[in-house]
Amino acid sequence: MKHASTQSSPAGAWSAICLRHAAVCALAGLGLAISAPATAKVEGNTIILGAAVSLTGKYSTNGKNTQDGYNLAVKRVNEMGGVKVGGKAYRLKVLYYDDESTSARGAQLAERLINQDGVKFVLGPYSSGLTKAIAPVTERYKIPMVEGNGADRNLFTQGYRYMFAVLNTSDYYLRAAINLAAEEAQRAGKSPKDLKIAIAIENDNFSQDVRDGVAEDARRLGMQVVIDEKLPPELNDMSVTLAKVKALKPDILVVSGHEKGATLAVRQVSEKRIDVPMLALTHCDSAQIIEKFGKGAEYVVCGSQWDRTLRYKDRWFGTADQYAQRFEKEYHYEAPYQAAESTAAVLAFVDAFERAGSFDTEKVRDALARADLMTFYGPIKFDQSGKNVAKSMVLYQVQDGKFKVVAPGKWASSKVIYPAPTWAKREE
């Protein structure tokens, strides 16, 4: 069992035990009779939230982003006096477990949080796959869960009443790229029907949703999808796809595969000098494509749930940029949207606790269902399926070594550069 916490808590105590007694933790990882101290939903003046996040395994980068986002929210709320419920101030604390980036482990740990640790309020894991594993558990026990990292739209067709998501569904991640290319084609006197699309995705639920959203908008606009492929599961080579791109010359290449997919696409497109007018990706910021590839990342277009230049503002962090500055001071890296949406999930709980005036799970659940608040991350308002229907996705492009918002128009800080210059032009 891997169990960690950055807060002073039973989780932190257990981590210390693990450091001193590796054998004890190994036994616990096998499910033997070892358990951390039980935790009630409220201990004295402290509200306990539970979370299983990916601190190891393939999602560990975004798992850390998720945990950092949760922890920054907890720290900020606590230093501002905590959560006011029934005339009393309460502090927040998060009890963490490491789901090891596996769905089965995530479901097991959700059971543990609820049944052994007594947690009544759950924060979501990273990824749609892990969220799909945990949601049936929280639903069965009627435990409210607020999540910011499970975007698969199928999550919201299951009739869940206790799951709420602050983010946009994954089919919207790169629709804006398709529509922006169509707008630019029309501006140049061309028809969107003349544009060709290439798609390369990881074989997972999130990326499949991204692909479906792109394909739906391409069909609507009359564009032709000339390449539609799944990347190898180890995500270390897309040479076969890029050879087709070189031959068929699509106007847009869409790649989705979390941070590994973004890293792979930028590295191989730049190494092989593949000319494509628009390279559209997910997870650019968490993949740190600018830091890793420099000029090789120029002109890449990226879908994002959030950006620091947006004009959203709240009572906890102020503006989006002020949130980003606080995050960077605390964790020494730029705030990715995965962290921002995780912070927003905690704020949604804070708002619900205060409006419910109670820690009764049904009252908190109903308060979440009625949420209508503005945060640094954007507006939050849930429909009956638990989706946030008040927020829009953003699209940014790497320009002069920085992410610049290029869509939607009313939030844009820069105009998109399309088509991107050829590699020969860039090297002149």
TrEMBL record:
<feature type="signal peptide">
    <location>
        <begin position="1"/>
        <end position="40"/>
    </location>
</feature>
<keyword id="KW-0732">Signal</keyword>
<protein>
    <submittedName>
        <fullName>Leucine-, isoleucine-, valine-, threonine-, and alanine-binding protein</fullName>
    </submittedName>
</protein>
<dbReference type="InterPro" id="IPR051010">
    <property type="entry name" value="BCAA_transport"/>
</dbReference>
<dbReference type="Pfam" id="PF13458">
    <property type="entry name" value="Peripla_BP_6"/>
</dbReference>
<dbReference type="InterPro" id="IPR028081">
    <property type="entry name" value="Leu-bd"/>
</dbReference>
<dbReference type="InterPro" id="IPR028082">
    <property type="entry name" value="Peripla_BP_I"/>
</dbReference>
<comment type="similarity">
    <text>Belongs to the leucine-binding protein family.</text>
</comment>
<feature type="domain" description="Leucine-binding protein">
    <location>
        <begin position="47"/>
        <end position="401"/>
    </location>
</feature>
